[in-house]
């Protein structure tokens, strides 16, 4: 999970033009009373350190080990995910997509950057980028190869274009060699990309 | 609108470049514009559809050459200037020159957690008739709205099968333009890669589409096992 404290590269006196514009805008909105600086700080902290793909990994690990939960995730993913405490903004209407030996699912938003924030956090840059948004639907296997993923010809690739407020979470296949593992152990090997569908869960990784 | 945001199926943007151990933010200003956008969204001055429309109205060449958070900055300024909340001159100077307008609410720190967990569900009650059911074959209309729409160009005129019914949801084509929620039935429609792209493949693309985007082409209840062949037949019918 990306917790790295990067990002102060434009700090000090050498602010970039875009950093100056955002700083000016923030000053203005605070001066006008439209935003509360403490709320801004809390939002940043929430999305930088509290909400990320570890949430989704716990959903997947539970689905792998608890058949009743997996069934609920299939039929009412929103409620199943809320039961683990993950809900709200950009996760109001969830659908879980289960990978099988016959079907590989992958998710895109060709029109913007729709992504299930409560379970995966904010999307990575590549997910929001023009190459992914343009090619995921027309050349999914080519895109997957850029992630080092090769889906056999006899399998179907299902791409899900998030054009509405429905958000999709891929439940990857559980790798062999993990029998008897705890949910915590399993969650630790579930990657963000495997829950978008641009990765597979492998053991050993 | 057939704007720069409608990217599905284009080529020429190069390979996808995943970054190993990518940080959540790449610069401090990205943190701030994310927070400003969410906080201003929480004031209720616009809805998510208007917000998406503001971004897609950015001139195409500028849109395609901007990073995602640059697009968010441009979109946020546009939303606020359109509503008279700030002026362009104020946004540049960073200083108030005209009085603040009253807002429905201001997001305080103590309300951040509750506002996040409440979210903004888009399902709405409606007494509209549901026209399609799972298994129905439908065609996405060949329409080119000049306002906001969530019907991607690559799906227009194409034939697919209803695979999920999500109930009635806010219709973005109305909501983005201040014309109300106008809830419509929302479906997930499954299109074969052959139908979309003209090549033999097992693959499919699923798209969430509201009922006004769809038309019946007769012949309901296509068995899943027939897959692409039956869809092609349906289109010729």
Blueprint of the fold:
The complex is a heterodimer of chains A (205) and B (237).
Chain A lengths: L16 H15 L5 H14 L2 H13 L1 H9 L1 H6 L10 E6 L4 E6 L8 H4 L4 H4 L1 H6 L4 H7 L9 E6 L4 E6 L11 H7 L2 H5 L9
Chain B lengths: L27 H14 L6 H9 L3 H5 L3 H15 L5 H6 L18 H7 L18 E4 L18 E11 L2 H4 L8 E9 H5 L6 E7 L3 E3 L10 H10 L1
Antiparallel strand pairs in B: 1-2, 1-5, 2-3, 3-4
Helix pairs in contact in B: 1-4, 2-4
Characterize the structure shown:
Chain A is 44% helix and 12% strand. Chain A has eleven helices and four strands. Chain A is globular, with a radius of gyration of 19 Å. The two termini of chain A are 15 Å apart. Chain B is of the alpha+beta class and 237 residues long. The interface between A and B is large, with 89 and 95 residues. Strand 3 of chain A pairs parallel with strand 4 (204-210) of chain B, so a sheet runs across the interface.
Question: What is shown here, in short?
Answer:
The complex is a heterodimer of chains A (205) and B (237). Chain A is of the alpha/beta class and 205 residues long.
